[in-house]
Specification:
Layout lengths: L1 E2 H4 L3 E4 L4 E11 L6 E7 L8 E5 L10 E3 L5 E2 L13 E4 L4 E11 L2 E7 L3 E2 L4 E4 L4 E3 L65 E3 L2 E4 L7 H9 L3 H7 L2
Parallel strand pairs: 2-6, 8-13
Antiparallel strand pairs: 1-9, 2-3, 3-4, 4-5, 5-7, 8-9, 9-10, 10-11, 12-13, 14-15
């Protein structure tokens, strides 16, 4: 059995290259939370990308480090997966608060249990999942959710004779709009760090930016983002 909380933060070794090629910073799952699909690897070494991915089936993680056979097992993206649900709030189908998801237990790559503050459940009891919330069904009986309505297609307009002599007005070009992220919003890709202690200090320009022992919050992630130290935070909080 493997706990995701024990895996996060472990160094990743390439056997063929005899190198540490990064650290396991996240694990991504299929849409139903039945299998771990992708391990996300973070690295602050200039010889390797800042972020890369390994199929979970190519990963061994029984010891003090995670192991792959060689660098050839790296893949280019995370595929059609969902992020690790750790730290997501969880409710049952009646709206009862079950606390937050604290761990995911695996048998090889198969999920056998999802651990919450006030209850545990198995993947077949998962009712729905989003980036912000998890809902489980603890009734023991299947619950069928209503499918969202699909809007009907707009009927085609009837043919109208075209006046070739009518004047044509050039439409005003749309104004460009710049969208920026609101300061203080959590960085979604690093939300798995929420609630984890920082093991060693994160430094910036020779000073301590985030002290050891700090419990990661949204403000901590935003502080690291502004200083360009998100990778270092991911490597030091587990």
């Amino acid at each position: 059995m493997t706990k995701i909380s024990d895996l996060l933060g472990k160094p990743l070794l390439s056997l063929a290259d005899a190198k540490v090629v990064g650290y396991v910073s996240n694990v991504r799952f299929d849409q139903k939370l039945t299998r771990a699909r992708i391990a996300e690897i973070t690295c602050d070494d200039d010889d390797f990308p800042e972020r890369s991915y390994v199929r979970f089936s190519d990963l061994r993680c029984d010891g003090d480090a995670a192991v792959i056979k060689s660098l050839s097992v790296f893949v280019t993206d995370n595929g059609a997966t969902v992020a690790c649900p750790i730290n997501l709030p969880c409710y049952n189908q009646s709206g009862k608060d079950l606390g937050h998801i604290r761990d995911v237990v695996l048998e090889k790559s198969t999920v056998v249990q999802i651990v919450c503050d006030k209850a545990n459940f198995v993947p077949k009891e998962l009712l729905s999942l989003s980036e912000r919330l998890c809902i489980c069904n603890d009734t023991g009986a299947p619950i069928k959710l209503a499918r969202p309505k699909v809007p009907k297609p707009t009927p085609k307009a009837s043919a109208v004779p075209v006046d070739l002599h009518a004047s044509v007005q050039t439409p005003t070009p749309p104004q460009s709009v710049t969208v920026t992220r609101t300061p203080g919003d959590p960085v979604k890709d690093y939300s798995f760090l929420l609630g984890k202690p920082v093991r060693t200090p994160v430094l910036a320009s020779g000073r301590v930016l985030i002290a050891a022992g700090t419990v990661v919050s949204e403000k901590t992630i935003e502080l690291a983002r502004r200083a360009g130290k998100l990778v270092q935070l991911a490597l030091r909080a587990y």
